[in-house]
Design goal:
- This protein is mostly helical and about 170 residues long.
- It is built from 7 helices and no strands.
- It has one domain.
């Protein structure tokens, strides 16, 4: 694959990632939805370039987001979960054992969610208010994550089916 094309795509994907992260910080609603769209950029970059290039896209998107937007909740969520999830999904799904894949994805999700929860409690005091019992929130988040993973899988299969040959 041509390195120039990879660099150009990397710049485009980085710009789109920073744009979506910025939109998630200024949007009054749908913050998680917009971050979910931003997380689809990493699998797209893995498909259209290389894993190494996708990692540099993730690093540059994260760094530019922190520098341009600041250390806000949406930026932290992207850096710790939404940006990394594309890589976790890529490597976990290489195992080709569905029950183990689901378990490993849930372990990744729960560990990153726990880390985000701790960061929100420490750095964003008063921002995170949960009015339901924590165990109910954890169960609901598991369900939401499974739906999110399925949506990302549908996005990846759609890209493979209709655009991979063009890109």
């Amino acid at each position: 694959m041509n390195k120039t094309i990879n660099i150009a795509r990397g710049g485009l994907f980085t710009a789109l990632g920073v744009l979506f992260i910025y939109l998630s910080t200024i949007s009054p609603t749908s913050k998680i939805y917009i971050l979910g769209i931003a997380s689809c950029i990493i699998p797209l970059s893995i498909i259209t370039t290389t894993v190494k290039n996708a990692f540099f896209i993730y690093l540059s998107t994260s760094l530019l987001s922190v520098l341009l937007i600041g250390f806000k909740g949406s930026v932290a969520a992207y850096v710790l979960f939404f940006g990394l999830y594309g890589f976790a999904k890529y490597y976990i799904e290489k195992l080709r054992k569905v029950p183990l894949e689901i378990l490993l994805k849930l372990v990744f999700f729960n560990s990153m969610t726990g880390l985000l929860y701790i960061l929100y409690k420490v750095f964003f005091v008063g921002l995170l208010r949960v009015n339901i019992p924590i165990y109910a929130a954890v169960v609901m988040l598991q369900f939401v994550f499974i739906v999110f993973d399925y949506a990302v899988t549908l996005f990846i299969s759609y890209i493979h089916r209709y655009f991979a040959k063009i890109l």
